[in-house]
Amino acid sequence: MKAVVLETRGADGVHYQEHEKPTPKEGEALIRLEAASLNRVDVYMRDSGAGITHSLPQVMGVDGIGHIEEINGHSDLTIGQRVILYPYEFCGTCEHCVQGDQPLCLSAKIPGEHINGTFADYICMPIQSLLPLSDNADATQAACLGVAYLTAWRMVFGKAKASPGKVALIVGAGGGVACASVQLAKLAGCFVIATTSGADKIEKVKQAGADVVIDYKQEDVVKRVMSITQRKGVDFAIDNVGDATWSSSLKSVKRGGDIVTCGATTGSHPSADLQRLFIRQLSIHGSTMGDLTEFSRLVKVFEEGLLKPVIDSVYPISKALRAFDRLEHAERFGKVVLNIT
Ligand SMILES: [Zn+2]
Q1: Mean pLDDT, residues 211-224 taken together
Q2: CA of 106 to the centre of ligand 1 (A)
Q3: pLDDT value of position 2
Q4: Cα separation of 143 and 337, whole Å?
Q5: Is the bond leading into 57 cis (omega within 30 degrees of zero)?
Q6: What phi-psi label fits residue 289: left (phi over 0), alpha (psi between -120 and 50 degrees) or beta?
């Protein structure tokens, strides 16, 4: 089969080439992949991969969709069925799996990180990590759900407990997960304030559903948030930017409010501002990915047409290197997708 393989670290180490076709072990299915999307973590794996147990060469790519070609073991799924990959191989027996919280599994393995990934003609995944996907679902959009949209789902619904009437602040809404958070917070019925920079991105964030977009390069974010909320502050902030914005996010949240993070692209050691934290009784939540129940809810909402992932561009898998360039381009907005079939 053909695959996008990381042979050595760095952009020069990524090759679209022949790779051995996998064979499903007991409890696994062989999937003929149809589409996959790129995530920031693919760049992290390419350039560093530090802290993630794996060996090179490795097939890249975390999320994707495809059709089942072979099943080794018992399953309600059938050969030829279209499926979406829940991007976790989990044990099902540790304390976290028993509680249904697969992202905390003590022996979790993620495609494209710990094991061979989705930028390939084929992948083998545990049957329990496959959810049926409607044949009518848009392939390009469905391929974006597994990482960015699932991560946003848990932050917005699970951690921030978004509900109608709440006011949300989504920081750096030009990014994939943050843009997904704008869409989901709006879907939850929140009033959504977002930050980004530049006229083009401001317009696109508005189209994604934000009620107000603040250009953080032109305006003081905290002042503007306080003005919009009659000096109360927002109910919750979602901030994956880190060092550059954490302080203003803390100052933008109302008393008793929540701040959720799933990333720290500008650095992960901002001031904790403990005095503000305890006096105003703020809650900080770390979050990553989501569990199978959350994923099936997300897929259902998508299949019902209530959510349309924002796509920047689509490349054939043979042009994966160009797709990586696009992912890192300053003007990119939304997801970069690989068409595999
Ligand atoms: Zn487990």
Answers
A1: 98
A2: 5
A3: 98
A4: 7
A5: yes
A6: left
Query: Ligand 1 centroid vs 89 CA: distance in angstroms?
Result: 9
Q: Are 83 and 142 in contact (CB under 8 A)?
A: no
Ligand 1 centroid to Cα of residue 1, in Å, is 31
Structure tokens at 151: 């991560």
Q: Which two tokens stand for residue 335?
A: 């997801």
Polymer length in residues for the chain: 341
One-letter amino acid at 291 equals: D
According to the model, what pLDDT value does residue 341 have? 85
Please, which residues have CB within 8 angstroms of residue 329's CB and are 6 or more apart in sequence? none
Mean pLDDT within 277-292: 97
Sequence ranges of the domains in the chain? 2-144+309-339, 150-286
How far, in Å, is the centroid of ligand 1 from the Cα of 100?
9
**In this structure, what token pair is assigned to residue 60?**
């890249």
Composition of the chain by helix, strand, coil, percent to 5: 30, 25, 40
Asked: is 2-144+309-339 a CATH 1.10.1040.50 domain? The reply is no
